[in-house]
Amino acid sequence: VEGGSVRNMYGGGWKGDVGYHNHSVNATTDDIEGTSHVVIGILPEKYIEHEAGYDEPYGFYKGVPTVQRNAYAGGEGGAVYGMANLTMNNGYVGYEYSNGNYVEKIEDDTHRDNLGNLIPNTNLKDSGNIFGGGYKEESDVDSTSIVMMGGTVRNSLYGGGEIATVGRGTKGSGTNSMPTIHKIGKTHVEMFSGTVLHDVFGGGKGYD
User: Fold this and answer.
1) What is the per-residue pLDDT across 43-92, written as a single tens digit (0 to 9) for each?
2) Which residues of the chain register pLDDT less than 50?
3) How many CA atoms lie within 13 A of 130 on its CB side?
4) 89 vs 16, 51, 149, CA distance in Å?
């Protein structure tokens, strides 16, 4: 996404997997590995290097986009059987573009009464995050990589997912039984520049 605005961003699919795994078995020997890539914004120096080929000045429409809610390298309801990658070069996560300014996106404008009138709210105050993994159950990824080169994240950056695992396993069946790990997960976060207004975690977020 080089410019403009999106609500949420996903590298994976909506109830669709990236890569292949035979769900009838836990073994990974027959897997076909997939890879997802999310890239947000354009580095200023890269824009200058190729400026002659662009028809928009550097800014919201070319180089500095907004993600109003969250950005995920993984999917929503779909797994990534392989590595999920997210690179943020520039832009704003948790913001909207209004009258030439980047402003925090706190109000959910879909929250309306039966007549279609907006109900004032702060439903999006906890949005504005980057996740290396996916969103919710069935959105597992095997490994993640986040590289932040610039831009602004209104809340936090997570190497893992949001209520979604990195790696593969099964829960224990009894009170004292241990889970079984089928594939060890791995997260990797690098931050070279930019601003994360809250926290940076190597792992994920365990609640919505």
Assistant:
1) 999 988 887 778 889 999 999 999 999 999 999 999 999 999 999 999 99
2) none
3) 38
4) 27, 16, 5
Distance CA 75, CA 129 (A): 15
146 C-beta neighbours (distance < 10 Å), count: 27
Name the strand (E) or helix (H) holding 149: none
* Alpha helices by DSSP H, the chain: 44-49
DSSP letter at 49?
H
The answer to whether the beta carbons of residues 169 and 175 sit under 8 Å apart is: no
pTM value? 0.92
Tell me, letter by letter, the H, E, C secondary structure of 102-142.
Answer: EEECCCCCCCECCCCCECCCCCCCCCCEEECCCECCCCCEE
d(CA 128, CA 123): 12
Residues in the chain: 208
Q: Is 44 exposed, middle or buried (0-12, 13-18, 19+ CB in 10 A)?
A: middle
